[in-house]
Amino acid sequence: MERPNAWLSYSEADMNQLEDVAKKYRHFLNVGKTERECITQIVKEAEEAGYVSLEEKMKKGEALKAGDKVYTVGMKKIIALYHIGEDDLAEGMNILCAHIDSPRLDIKQNPLYEDTDLAYLDTHYYGGVKKYQWVALPMAMHGVIVKKDGTVVNVTIGEDEEDPVLYITDLLIHLAGQQMAKKASEVVEGEKLDILIGSRPLADLPDDKKKEAVKENVLRILNEKYGVEEEDFLSAELEIVPAGKARDCGLDRSMIAGYGQDDRVCAYTSLLALLEMKAPKRTSCCLLVDKEEIGSVGATGMQSRFFENSVADVLDALGQYSDLRLRKALKNSSMLSSDVSAGYDPAFAEAFEKKNSAYLGRGIVLNKFTGARGKSGSNDANAEYVARVRKIFNDHNVFFQTAELGKVDVGGGGTIAYIAALYEMEVIDSGVSVLSMHAPWEVTSKADVYEAYKAYKAFLLDA
């Protein structure tokens, strides 16, 4: 069943609100290129909307009550926000869950070296990438360096117009005959994704330093600008991402091109929906997690106990904690796993099954299941829950579509949905379709961003 294009239904008021949401979203993309930066911006916007730290509230011995708005952060990379409802928390919550990590290049712990008068930083790619897409582009460095005395130094290089950019070289076409004959997965190898950061040698060095004069000059610049030494790379988290701001895309300005839209497009619209909630009957939650691109592992991924522990803290602050009530609160909850879907691309039509594909401009996407081949790694939502979500979207005039992730046996992918489902809660994947997913620059439709925002608001109200 072909779904209608959302653009054809918009009034002038709709268009004004759509552009307002798109403007806020572009800003979020530009200020949040790492997980830490995302969390900083999320906390800022949450506090402006009246949210307070759950930990601070607990330290003061202040009990939670209906109407309170609190957030809790884990290791500066994962956050849960709660708007306490009137209903007993053990009856469940309405939860929006997205991830804020994106494919990128991470600087290694011992990265700096010089080779024939050129200085480089060694990298290790993060998440699923086509490595050849990440060369010959202006790149930026974001992250933190923590010195041995505990001082945290924030680093951003390559985003300001006056900043230098960083770069990964590629072999010139004139000498690339053998390279061009390789499989796409081998055209650029992971160990060749090293960042070119300097070529000017430092003068007047002692003899034992002259062989690495360019490297020494880079270290001098880093020390002057940030007060760090080479050894401080050992305790650094530095990410290499495409330089430049998210931009309107298309002559009609109907799309957004930018880095990290998987999954920040769903993360931000989920956040915006929660921040605009008014006195919910059922507690509303927005959970934004890390490490999804590498399996949701670690202390800040969905597989950690962060979410479960934060719900326990909320119950405790309400004066209602017990292990049984915690289990009931999780089991009785309803969640949208707010994650992106593959947008149908006519240039690569052979990878898609048209009846079951997501199309730009036709609204938010429901993926009943994801996974690979025989639905491996998928949650596969219950039909009754799919019907309930459909009704919510229809009741609130939300444009939505359903899709699978490409043709059977062509590939596949997964989300956090199956992890949340381990609590026995109802979960379905619901997000925005993306073109060029996992590329340095991805494309989304403003209409789909707007419909996701509307869908998430409706879900929090009526799920």
UniProtKB/TrEMBL annotation:
User: Gene3D superfamilies under this entry?
Assistant: Aminopeptidase i, Domain 2, Zn peptidases
| Annotated protein name in UniProt | M18 family aminopeptidase
Lineage, top-rank taxon, reads: Bacteria
Q: Which family does it belong to?
A: Belongs to the peptidase M18 family.
EC assignment: the record states 3.4.11.-
From which lineage does this chain's organism come? Answer: Bacteria, Bacillati, Bacillota, Clostridia, Lachnospirales
Q: Which GO terms describe its molecular function?
A: aminopeptidase activity
Q: Which UniProt keywords apply?
A: Aminopeptidase, Hydrolase, Metal-binding, Metalloprotease, Protease, Zinc
The Swiss-Prot or TrEMBL record lists the needed cofactor(s) as: Zn(2+)
